[in-house]
Design a protein that fits this description.
This protein has a 6-stranded antiparallel β-sheet with strand order 20-21-23-22-24-27, sandwiched between helices. The protein has a 5-stranded antiparallel β-sheet with strand order 6-7-8-9-10. It has a 4-stranded antiparallel β-sheet with strand order 1-2-3-4, with helices on both faces. The protein is about 40% helix and about 25% strand. By secondary structure, it is of the alpha+beta class. Strand 8 and strand 9 form a beta hairpin. The longest helix has about 60 residues.
Length: about 650
C-alpha cells in the first residue's frame, strides 16, 4: 500500500506532536528503502521513527538489518545527536521535510512517498548531499550536488477545497470519478469510497450530475478529509489478498476487516509486514543464488574428476600398447608400425620447438623418442599415476564445496524460522537515568550528565528520599527513593555507586567519599548574586559522609516486568538480583571494547535473552572511562528458579 496526501498530513501532525525536543541517538539501516531512527529525550521514553519509501510512522518493533542501506553511513555522520526540529508536509503532496539542527548545523531529510519513493539528505540550502537514487526526467533532475527540486504540483489542494472547485465537474465530459481523482489527486480507494458513501454512480458523466449529487460528493469529501486529518476516525486493517490500513471505512469492505488501535499502529503492523516480507525475499534470493553457484561448482568438479579419470585410463592404455609393440618386435616409437598402434589408442607423436611430445587426449607428455619403449612406457605410467593423484585433490575440493552447500542449505532453512522482528520494550521511567535496586529492594536513580542530573533532582526528589553526591568535582547526584528508614546497607551501596559513577572512576581515585542529605537541604536556585551551572544545586546544613574504599561495579541482567533488563551498580545487589553479571574496575579497555566483551560473554550464557539487548545499551550502563573486567559469572538469581517461581 502507499500513503495518500491526507494520510500523510495526519501522520506529520501526530508525529510532530510526539517528537518535540527529541534528538537522534541512533540510526539503523533496515533495507535499502527503510531507515529506523531512535529518538531520545532526557525525560521521556525513547521513540522509534521509521522513514521508508512507503511513508513515515512511529514503530513499536525493531527489525534486524535485512540488506545494506547506502544512506546509512552518511546519515549517521551528519544527523546523530542532532535535534529533530520539525516535520512538515509540502502542500498536499506526498512529500515530507524532516529538519534536524544542532552544533551550528542544519540538515533536511526529504521523504518522497510516491511512485518508487526516494529519501534525500540536503543541507539547509536544499542542496542534495546524498540520496537513495538519482532521477533525471523531463521536469526535474535529482543528483548529489544539485538543488532539490519538487515535482510539479498535481491537482487542487484538497485541504482547501471549496464548492467552486467543483464547478468544472458539472461541465466535464469525463466520467465523474475520473475527473475527481485527477483534480484532487486522490488514490482510487478514496475516489471509489467517496462516491459509494455519497451514493453517486462514479461512472456517470460529470455534466449529467445533479446539483444535489455534486453537493453530496463535496460534503463527503470535506468530512473524510477533516476526519482523517483531525484524528476523528476509527482505523481498520483490511486483508484481502494484500493488507491495507485505512483511517476511515470507505463504503463496503471486502475481505477480513480488523480494527486498529490507531492509524499509526495499523501502519506499523502493515508496513512492517511488507518490509519483512520483502527483506526475507531478498535474503532468500541471495541465498538461492549462492546455493546455485555452489551446485554449479560441484557439477563442474564432478565433470573434472571424470575427465581426469578418462585421461589417466587412456595414458595407461597407451603405456600398455608400448609393451604390445615390443612383443611384436617393434623397437622404436618412431617406427611406422608404432605410429599405427598409437593412432588406434588416440595418441600421436608431435614436435614443438624441437621437443618430442606424445599427445594423449589433449594431454602433451614429453618423451625421449630414442629411448627404449619400456622406458617411454614407464614415463607414461608415472604420468597416469600423477593424473590419479589429481583426482584425489579435486575430490577433496568437492567435499569441501559440498559441506559449504549443506551448511548454507541448513542456514537458509533455519532462517525461515528466525524472527527478524523484536518488540521494543516500553521502558520504566527510571531507565532513562542510571539506576539499580539495592540489596533491600530500594530504587536508586542517578544522573548521567548535567541535563539528567538536573532532571533527577528537580523532577524526582521528594520528601522521604535521600540525596547523595560525591565529595569530588564531577559527581552525579543519586537519589535513594523511599529512604526514610533505609538500612545502612542500602545507604552504603548508593554512596558507593555515587563515587563509582563520578570522575573518580575515570581517574582511578580510590578512597573518595560521598555524602547524603535530606531533600529540604537541597536548594534548586543559586544564592543572590551567584550563578549555578546546569545540573548543580546548593546544599545547606550538615552533610553525612560515607567513605568508599573501593571502585568496583557490576553489570548485570535482571528480570523485570516479564522481560530482562541491563543495569549497573554495586556488586552485591547486582549479583543477588541478576541471572548473570560482570565485575569491573577502573583502567584497562575503552568503553566500547568492554561493552563488546561483556556482551559476548553474556551471549554464551543466555543467548536468547542477550541477543535482544544491543551493544548501545551495554555502553550506556557503563561508567565513563576505561574499565577492566575482573569476573564474569552466573548471578544468584538462577533463571530456572525465576521461571519456576513465575509459573507457581
Amino acid at each position: 500500500m502507499t500513503l495518500s496526501g491526507i494520510e500523510l498530513r495526519y501522520l506529520v501532525n501526530q508525529i510532530s506532536e510526539q517528537v518535540q525536543d527529541y534528538y537522534i541517538s541512533n540510526i539503523y539501516g533496515i533495507t535499502k528503502d527503510s531507515i529506523l531512527f531512535k529518538l531520545h529525550h532526557t525525560e521521556k521514553s525513547d521513540l522509534f521513527m521509521m522513514i521508508s519509501t512507503s511513508g513515515v510512522w512511529l514503530t513499536k518493533v525493531k527489525i534486524d538489518q535485512m540488506e545494506p542501506n547506502r544512506l546509512l553511513k552518511r546519515l549517521r555522520s551528519d544527523l546523530l545527536r542532532l535535534k529533530l526540529k520539525k516535520i512538515e508536509q509540502i502542500g498536499a503532496e506526498r512529500i515530507a521535510y524532516f529538519t534536524f539542527e544542532g552544533f551550528g548545523k542544519e540538515f533536511v531529510l526529504v521523504g518522497e512517498f510516491f511512485g518508487d519513493g526516494n529519501i534525500l539528505l540536503c543541507n539547509n540550502d536544499m542542496k542534495i548531499l546524498a540520496l537513495q537514487h538519482s532521477i533525471e526526467v523531463r521536469h526535474r533532475k535529482l543528483s548529489v550536488g544539485l538543488d532539490y527540486v519538487q515535482p510539479p504540483t498535481s491537482g487542487t489542494d484538497i485541504f482547501n477545497i471549496s464548492e467552486s472547485d467543483f464547478e468544472d465537474l458539472k461541465t466535464t465530459d469525463l466520467v465523474c470519478a475520473k475527473w475527481f481523482g485527477r483534480t484532487l489527486g486522490l488514490p482510487k480507494k478514496y475516489v471509489e469510497g467517496i462516491f459509494e458513501i455519497s451514493n453517486v454512480d462514479g461512472k456517470k458523466i460529470g455534466n449529467l450530475l445533479t446539483a444535489e449529487e455534486t453537493k453530496r460528493i463535496f460534503d463527503t469529501t470535506k468530512k473524510i478529509v477533516s476526519d482523517i486529518v483531525s484524528g476523528n476516525h476509527d482505523p481498520i486493517i483490511v486483508r484481502n489478498g494484500k493488507a491495507e490500513v485505512l483511517p476511515v471505512r470507505l463504503g463496503k469492505m471486502e475481505g477480513e476487516v480488523i480494527k486498529a488501535n490507531s492509524f499509526i499502529e495499523g501502519l506499523d503492523t502493515v508496513f512492517t509486514e511488507n518490509i519483512v516480507e520483502k527483506g526475507k525475499s531478498i535474503q532468500s534470493s541471495g541465498s538461492d543464488k549462492k546455493i546455485k553457484e555452489l551446485e554449479t561448482q560441484i557439477s563442474e568438479q564432478e565433470k573434472a574428476i571424470e575427465t581426469v579419470k578418462e585421461r589417466s585410463k587412456n595414458i595407461t592404455n597407451v603405456a600398455n600398447s608400448l609393451f604390445e609393440m615390443v612383443s611384436h618386435g617393434i623397437v622404436s616409437i618412431e617406427d611406422n608400425s608404432a605410429h599405427k598402434i598409437l593412432a588406434n589408442n588416440n595418441a600421436k607423436l608431435i614436435t614443438e620447438k624441437g621437443i618430442p611430445l606424445i599427445v594423449i587426449q589433449d594431454e602433451k607428455i614429453k618423451i625421449n623418442t630414442k629411448a627404449p619403449l619400456q622406458s617411454i612406457a614407464s614415463v607414461l605410467f608415472n604420468e597416469a599415476k600423477k593424473q590419479s593423484g589429481a583426482i584425489k585433490s579435486i575430490q577433496e575440493i568437492k567435499e569441501r564445496t559440498m559441506k559449504k552447500l549443506e551448511k548454507l542449505q541448513n542456514k537458509t532453512e533455519s532462517e525461515k524460522d528466525i524472527t527478524v522482528i523484536s518488540e521494543i520494550r516500553k521502558k520504566n521511567w527510571y531507565e532513562r537515568y542510571r539506576w539499580f535496586f539495592t540489596s533491600d529492594d530500594l530504587l536508586a536513580i542517578g544522573g548521567r550528565d548535567a541535563a539528567s542530573n538536573s532532571a533527577v533532582v528537580r523532577k524526582h526528589l521528594v520528601k522521604n528520599d535521600k540525596i547523595f553526591h560525591g565529595d569530588i568535582f564531577g559527581s552525579p547526584f543519586f537519589i535513594l527513593k523511599e529512604a526514610q528508614n533505609a538500612p545502612d546497607r542500602s545507604m552504603n551501596e548508593v554512596a558507593h555507586a555515587t563515587v563509582c559513577f563520578s570522575r573518580a572512576w575515570k581517574e582511578g581515585m580510590y578512597g573518595v567519599s560521598a555524602f547524603w542529605v535530606n531533600p529540604e537541604q537541597v536548594k534548586k536556585s543559586a544564592p543572590s548574586g551567584e550563578f549555578l551551572p546546569k545540573g548543580s544545586f546548593t546544599i545547606e546544613g550538615q552533610r553525612n559522609f560515607i567513605k568508599s574504599d573501593t571502585l568496583k561495579l557490576a553489570v548485570g541482567i535482571i528480570p523485570q516486568d516479564d522481560d530482562y533488563v541491563l543495569t549497573c551498580g554495586p556488586p552485591d545487589p547486582i549479583k543477588k538480583k541478576s541471572i548473570c553479571y560482570a565485575i569491573i574496575e577502573p583502567h584497562g579497555l575503552e568503553l566500547v571494547d568492554v561493552a563488546k566483551k561483556i556482551r559476548i560473554e553474556f551471549l554464551k550464557m543466555y543467548e536468547d535473552i542477550v541477543k535482544k539487548i544491543n551493544l548501545d545499551e551495554f555502553v550506556r550502563v557503563l561508567p565513563s572511562g576505561k574499565s577492566q573486567i575482573k569476573e564474569i559469572s552466573i548471578g544468584d538469581l538462577d533463571i530456572e528458579k525465576f521461571t519456576d517461581s513465575e509459573l507457581d
